[in-house]
Design a protein that fits this description.
This protein has 16 helices and no strands. It is mainly alpha-helical and 352 residues long. It folds into two domains: 93 residues, Fumarate Reductase Iron-sulfur Protein, Chain B, domain 2 (Orthogonal Bundle); 243 residues, Fumarate Reductase Cytochrome B subunit, CATH 1.20.950. The longest helix is centred in the middle third of the chain and has 33 residues. The model has no long low-confidence stretch (mean pLDDT 86). The structure holds iron/sulfur cluster (2 copies). The site of one iron/sulfur cluster (SF4) has 13 residues, from helix 2 and helix 3.
C-alpha cells in the first residue's frame, strides 16, 4: 500500500474528538511528544505521527497501528505538549475506536465501549440468568426460605457449567476473530509490521503483562505498576481456581460445595480475590486522584475496572453471607456476582 495520505474520514475525526481527543487539531508537529515518551521506539517513534494521521482523518492507518497499543497512558506527552493537543488522550481515543472497530460481532464493542449501552450490557446477563433459573426450576426461584445455603439452589451446577462454558467459548471466539482481523489488516496495510508472528507477539504481550518490564521504564507510570500486577495476578489466579472448580464439579460433584474456609481452593480463591479487589481499588484511586490519568482513561478502561471490582466484591459478599447463613442476602448477592462475571465475559469477547 502506498504510504501517501488517503481521503480524510471526517466522521472518524469527529468520533476521536468525542472520545477525548477534542484538542487534536492544535498539534503543530513539533515532535516534543515523541521525544519525551520513554516507550517510543527509535525506529518508528510515536505519538507525533499518530497526531497528524488523526488530524487528517486517516482511519485505516490508525486502527491498524500497533504503536497505539504500546502506550501506557502516563500522559507525559500531554504534559509537555506546547500546544495542549493532549496526544495521550488522542491515543486513548484511537484505542477505544479500534476496539469497537474490531469487536466481533460489532455490537459487542458498543456494549463495553459506549456508556450509552451500559444498561444493556448488564440487562443481557440479568435476562439470561433469570431465564436459566426459570428453565431450571420451572418458574423463577431465588432463595429457599430455610435450610443450608447452596447456591446450586438458584442455578444447578450443571446449568452454570454449561452456560458459562458456552459464554467463555463465545468470548474466546469473538476475541480471537477480532484479534485475527486486526492482525490481517495490520499485515495488509502496514508494510514491515508485524515483525514477529502472532503467537510470538501474544507470548511477548503475556510476558510484558506478567512482569510489566517496559511499564516500569516509564517514571510517571511506574507507581501504577503494583496496582496493575495485583489485578493481573488476581485475575489469572481466579481464572485458574474457577477452572479447577469446574473440573471438580464435572469429575467429582460430591466434593462441592466447599464448606470450610481452610480448604486449599478457598484459600487460593480468597487470596487471589483480595489481590483483585485491592488492585482494582488502587487503580481506580490512581485514576481519580490523578486528573491527567483520569482524563486519558476511556469508558472501556472504566468498564473493565468497575466490573472486575464488582466481581471481587460480590464474590466476597456471597461467601460472607453463605458462611453467616444470611439466606435472604446470600442468593441475591450471588445473582449479582453472576451478572458481573457474565459482563466480564462480554468484555473479554472484545479485542485486543
Ligand atoms: S502533539 Fe503536541 S508535542 Fe506532539 S507534535 Fe503535536 S504539538 Fe508537538
Ligand atoms: S501517554 Fe505516555 S506512553 Fe503514551 S504516548 Fe504519551 S508519553 Fe508515551
Amino acid at each position: 500500500m502506498s504510504d501517501s495520505l488517503t481521503k480524510p474520514d471526517l466522521e472518524f475525526v469527529r468520533q476521536l474528538k468525542a472520545a477525548g481527543g477534542e484538542n487534536l487539531k492544535k498539534c503543530f508537529q513539533c515532535a516534543t511528544c515523541s521525544v519525551v515518551c520513554k516507550l517510543s521506539p527509535d525506529e518508528r517513534p510515536y505519538p507525533r505521527k499518530e497526531m497528524i494521521w488523526a488530524q487528517w482523518g486517516q482511519r485505516e492507518k490508525l486502527v491498524t497501528d500497533p504503536d497505539v497499543w504500546l502506550c501506557h497512558q502516563c500522559n507525559d506527552c500531554s504534559t509537555y505538549c506546547p500546544r495542549g493537543a493532549r496526544p495521550g488522550d488522542v491515543l486513548s481515543a484511537v484505542r477505544s475506536y479500534a476496539i469497537q472497530h474490531y469487536a466481533t460481532p460489532s455490537f459487542m464493542g458498543k456494549l463495553v465501549g459506549d456508556p450509552g449501552y451500559v444498561l444493556l450490557a448488564l440487562a443481557i446477563p440479568v435476562i439470561v440468568l433469570l431465564g436459566a433459573n426459570y428453565m431450571a426450576h420451572g418458574g423463577l426461584m431465588f432463595a429457599p426460605a430455610h435450610g443450608e445455603i447452596h447456591f446450586s439452589e438458584f442455578l444447578p451446577h450443571a446449568t452454570v457449567n454449561v452456560l458459562f462454558s458456552i459464554l467463555f467459548t463465545l468470548a474466546l471466539i469473538g476475541g480471537g476473530v477480532g484479534l485475527l482481523r486486526f492482525w490481517k489488516d495490520m499485515k495488509k496495510h502496514r508494510p514491515g509490521a508485524p515483525k514477529v508472528g502472532l503467537i510470538k507477539a501474544m507470548v511477548d504481550t503475556f510476558v510484558e503483562l506478567a512482569l510489566h518490564g517496559k511499564f516500569r521504564t516509564c517514571g510517571t507510570a511506574k507507581p501504577r505498576t503494583w496496582a496493575h500486577l495485583l489485578i493481573f495476578y488476581g485475575f489469572a489466579g481466579l481464572f485458574v481456581v474457577t477452572g479447577i472448580v469446574v473440573i471438580m464439579l464435572i469429575l467429582a460433584p460430591d466434593s462441592y460445595p466447599i464448606n470450610t474456609l481452610t480448604h486449599p481452593l478457598k484459600i487460593a480463591g480468597n487470596l487471589t480475590g483480595i489481590s483483585l479487589v485491592v488492585g482494582c481499588t488502587w487503580a481506580i484511586y490512581n485514576r481519580l486522584s490523578d486528573p491527567d490519568a483520569a482524563g486519558s482513561s476511556t469508558y472501556y478502561d472504566w468498564f473493565f475496572l468497575v466490573v472486575l471490582l464488582m466481581v471481587g466484591i460480590t464474590g466476597f459478599g456471597a461467601q460472607f453471607a453463605r458462611f453467616r447463613e444470611m439466606t435472604t442476602l446470600a442468593y441475591p448477592v450471588y445473582f449479582v456476582h453472576m451478572v458481573f462475571i457474565f459482563a466480564l465475559l462480554i468484555y473479554l469477547a472484545s479485542p485486543p
